[in-house]
Amino acid sequence: MKITVVGTGYVGTTTTVALAMSGHTVCGVDVDPVKVQALQNGHLPIFEEGLQDALRQELARGRLTFTCDLGQVILDSDVVLLAVGTPPDADGSADLTALEAVARQLGRLFQPNPNQTGPIVAVKSTVPVGTGARVRGWIQQELTLRGVHVPFEMASNPEFLREGRALHDALHPDRVVIGADTPRAAQLMESVYLPLGAPQLVTSIRDAEMIKYASNAFLATKISFMNELARLCERVGANIQQVAHGMGWDARINPHFLQAGIGYGGSCFPKDVQALQALASQSGLSLQILQAVESVNRSQPGWFLQKVKSVLGPLHGLQITVLGLTFKPGTDDIRESPAIPILKHLEEQGAHLTAYDPKGMAAMKQRFPSVLYASNLPEALRDADAVLLLTEWKEVVDHDWASSCKELRQPFVFDGRNVLNAELMHQWGYSYYGVARH
Ligand code: UDX
User: Where are the alpha helices (DSSP H) in 237-268?
Assistant: First the structure.
């Protein structure tokens, strides 16, 4: 099939590559000529394991191209996937400006064809319920203005890929959700994903739109639940990891997303939890559970810092090393990373800061220019009064902690992700504090 993907951000780029790998002819379209040129030359503007190699392979095979010229590719596309950004508005609701611009452009470009069929326009961006209908309206308005009839059909096709595992998730999804209000749209969208062999669920467009928000909000709820429980575990002397383990063996709960820590970050959970609440409030409802999910998440970095201060006392003048800056390992993305409020607070308290992260230092340097950025992990640890582990990078977890202890001025380690072996850390001479499990 011939597929156009509009928007070459995380989701858009991964989708172009995954669909080309599935045997389709794919064109990625973006308004940013620098980005398009880079992608066309095989350069990925983000760090994502395996994606750049796959991109180069598909470019070389000739099934994948990138352009700024939507008009050039749109006319012979069977499916147009919209994967443009939907950043939060001032009130947390999704800003659909980019989506409207693309929809209107489609309406100005679509041409009738002799078979009397039109393309399927599927929204991949995470959008509020009802957006599919609005996109249809925007396209139709432009067609009507031109006096042209093109029988295009709408679909919703939410994406569930995770950063750091984007290509894997796009090629091996747990499920493909297709929201379609006509049999032809459903059938064409099913054929797009047929090569993946993944289970497919066909719903209405509104249901598909809600499934995406509901899934992210539920995963965020699991995390905030465990983070709040960790606070109680600490008070009553229970170990949150053992508790999570025992809960996860119940198939109704499952072991995933029960990892307590310093709170969730990234480009999706914080934004989607807020957007779902904004949608609720526009519908005259308030989602109390999600309010709590957000509030626990906002206060989790502060809770962690409180623990650090209760051990170290005033932080003024202390040499503190922060390991991990990105919101999770395997990415260079620092959006909504819990490391941001933590660095901010440490700075305000007058601590001297050194940071190390395999991928996130360039971005963090722009926000915190006075932090010292170490060029490697051993250098970051040298002469520290305390170490705060904020992202569970493999390099950090696998580090030779046994021999590093003597490099620190004071051997305090606060593990915000519960990834180091507490028993061994104590044995090696550290004063080690995890999250509800020391
Ligand atoms: C998420 C969803 O998983 C994905 O389906 C959706 O398409 C986009 O949003 P992503 O943001 O890439 O993906 O990362 P994810 O692995 O879900 O982690 C999100 C945040 O939650 C990270 O900050 C992570 O550290 C945190 N997290 C995750 C926890 O604190 N505990 C857990 O048990 C799991």
Answer: 240-248
Average pLDDT on 414-427 reads 97
Atom index in ligand 1 nearest the CA of residue 268 equals 9
Beta bridge partners of 176: 200
The verdict on whether 268 is a catalytic residue reads yes
Question: What's the helix, strand, coil split of the chain in %, to 5?
Answer: 45, 15, 40
* C-alpha span between 390 and 408 (Å, rounded): 18
Per-residue confidence (pLDDT) for residue 354, from 0 to 100: 98
Span 285-299, average pLDDT: 98
Q: Determine the 3-state secondary structure of 80 from DSSP.
A: strand
Question: What stretches of 46-182 show up as alpha helix (H) in DSSP?
Answer: 51-61, 70-74, 97-109, 131-146, 166-171
Over residues 321-346, mean pLDDT:
97
Least Cα distance to 156 among 133, 137, 179 occurs for 179
As a whole number of angstroms, the distance between CA 404 and CA 139 comes to: 61
pLDDT for 115: 82
Question: Do 259 and 244 form a contact (C-beta atoms < 8 A)?
Answer: yes
Is 287's pLDDT higher than 90?
Answer: yes
CA–CA separation, 151 and 279 (whole Å) = 30
pTM of the model: 0.96
Distances (CA, A) of 63 to 18, 66, 275, 344, 391: 11, 11, 36, 46, 37
Structure tokens at 355: 């940071």
- The count of other CB atoms within 10 Å of the CB of residue 149 is 11
Q: Is the ipTM of this complex over 0.95?
A: yes
Rg of the Cα trace of the chain? 24
Ligand 1 atom 19 nearest Cα: 264
Gap from CA of 4 to ligand 1 centroid (Å): 28
